[in-house]
Amino acid sequence: MSMFPDDEAITTDNQGLITVLVRAHHLSDFPAFVAWMRTTLNGRHRGLLRLSEEDRQDDEVFKTVMSLMKVVFDRKVHDKVTKSEVFEYQPDCQVAFATSPDHDIFQYIRVQCSPEEREKFVAEATSNSSYGCRDSCCYQVLKESGVTGLANHCFGVLRAQRDASLKNDEKISSILYGAGIQLHRGRKIKLCRDFSLSNLKTVLDHASEKYDGLAYPYVYSGTAHSFFPWHIEDAGLYSINYNIKGAPKLWFGIEPQYFGLVDKICSSLHIDKGYTSCRALLVDHKVVVANPKYFFDLLGIPYTIGLQEPGDFMVTFPFALHAGFNLGHNLATAANFGDPEWVELGIYAPICLCNPEEIHLDFTNIIRKCRPDLLNIYNNKTILMFPKSHPMEVLYPACSDGNDGKQTTEQKVQTEEEAQPASCSSRVLSGRSLKLESFDWF
After folding, report:
1. Which residue stretches does the UniProt record annotate as biased composition, category Basic and acidic residues (predicted)?
2. How far apart are the C-alpha atoms of 205 and 237, rounded to whole Å?
């Protein structure tokens, strides 16, 4: 029995997404499997792991998660303001405000859902029948237009929400998402034989503090058109997401090497300056919802689109940007992990200073255990000066003429009046010199 999947188990679709058919025993030594993925995926920023039918135990997992989720939804706490008992968990009520009249770019605002909306969400999220129904309009679009048409459809829903907000007499339809549901910390749910996201046995186990969502998996209850904005993981970590049951998830991905450039672009968007001024805009705030085609059209930044069906693990690599939509009611669980190669990247990850409650991972114990060569750098706080070729560096898509396309923050994109190779995939704006410190595009 091979420790890792063979070559026949690895396929690549026309969107560039690699899918690996895995068996339960392949995941038994997860750190070794991660090292195999690093080599096999040849630097790709994410991969889909499709668990074989004979190893799936989704019905058992679904039953366990549903029972624990009901406990969370029923839990009440005392509200000091209203001096009454209120439900502790509130789903995200998602509203996306357009920031450009010409592009699918939105700022995500989380608003308070009404008691009636919460009641309806909880009823549907805890009903078994919700996860077996595939009558969402997303499926018809997918059948007729494929994943690209589906992406356009999902952004079209946000455009419709924007248009409704412009009419004072028309109520904005709510999109509810059960994100970040923390179940019982001590309960290790096995997704397949001897494999649990609560016990991945990676270098993150050496962290001095255990955070929800990192060391302890979160559960996510999706609804049709609910979304997750563009972001990387805390401390630039890997992520692993398992779709337990229900509708697929539509994922967009951008390679780590373009994180610095996308971060600069998003910091220039017409969204709340309280967010754009933070170094961790694409880490902790998670407010930018944008069609990845915008980044490609603007500067040639490549992206991939993929569907995650029930029984699929989606793995994203350090500093890989990702966003997406749920196509209907689904139930998923996710956690973060790291490896020794991640540590050298993670110590330079942006940190949010706006909110003291955000995750600030202390690397000291992790470095001592697996990368002692980095301890002096970390202790001397020289981590503000990230090394060359780190994802934080602003790099442009490579040109086919042999120019590697690298440009630092001080350099500018050439205008059409300047000599630029026609073969270069980078995009420029007509007649305008763009300096990355001060974008002004709208």
Report:
1. 403-415
2. 13
Phi then psi for residue 317, to 5 deg, are -90, 165
Q: Where are the alpha helices (DSSP H) in 217-313?
A: 259-267, 273-276, 292-299
Cβ neighbours around 188 below 10 Å, total: 12
Q: Which two tokens stand for residue 347?
A: 């110590």
Rounded Cα distance between 423 and 167, Å, is: 45
Q: Which 3 state secondary structure label does DSSP give 123?
A: helix
How long, in residues, is the chain? 442
pLDDT tier at 356, thresholds 50, 70, 90: low
pLDDT in tens, 310-346: 999 999 999 999 999 999 999 999 999 999 999 999 9
**Whole-number Å distance between alpha carbons of 18 and 23:** 16
Q: What is the largest CA-CA distance in the chain?
A: 68
Strands 46-51 and 18-22: parallel
CB 106 within 8 A of CB 162: yes
State the Cα–Cα distance between residues 223 and 373, nearest whole angstrom.
46
Residue pair 399/426 in contact (Cβ under 8 Å)? The answer is: yes
Single out the residue of 287, 283, 286 nearest to residue 235, CA to CA. 283
Residues 266, 232: Cα–Cα separation, whole Å: 13
Which position has the token pair 């979160």?
Answer: 218
Half-sphere exposure for 69 (CA within 13 Å, toward CB): 29
